[in-house]
């Protein structure tokens, strides 16, 4: 079992949640709620891993608040 960190955003036009794994080409999906998005991402990642281990082009580090005066 492997763990990956997904970034989740809400599309302002469609209202759908969009999730992707930074640096993992093709590892993205969308859904109406978080449970559905997680299931979709698990399915996509499992399918992508059938081709072997990915060469991640980036790694999620975290978030940072930027204050602008």
What does this structure look like?
The chain contains one helix and three strands. It has a domain at 7-49. It is an alpha+beta fold and 69 residues long. A three-stranded antiparallel sheet has the order 1-2-3, with helices on one face. The radius of gyration is 14 Å and the shape is flat. The N and C termini lie far apart (45 Å). The protein has one helix at 34-49, and strands spanning 7-10, 17-20, 28-31.
Topology, pairings included?
Blueprint: E1 7-10, E2 17-20, E3 28-31, H1 34-49
Antiparallel strand pairs: 1-2, 2-3
Structure in a nutshell:
The chain is of the alpha+beta class.
Into which percent range does the helicity of residues fall?
A: 10-25%
Biggest sheet character: 3 strands, antiparallel
In round numbers, the mean pLDDT is 95
**Order of strands side by side in the largest beta sheet?**
1-2-3
Distance from first to last alpha carbon: 45 Å
Give me some keywords for this one:
23% helix; 69 residues; 3-stranded antiparallel sheet; 1 helix; 3 strands; alpha+beta
């Amino acid at each position: 079992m492997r763990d990956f960190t997904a970034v989740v955003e809400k599309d302002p036009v469609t209202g759908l949640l969009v999730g992707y794994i930074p640096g993992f080409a093709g590892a993205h999906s969308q859904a109406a709620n978080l449970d559905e998005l997680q299931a979709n991402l698990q399915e996509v990642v499992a399918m992508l891993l059938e081709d072997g281990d990915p060469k991640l082009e980036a790694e999620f580090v975290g978030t940072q608040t930027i204050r602008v005066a």
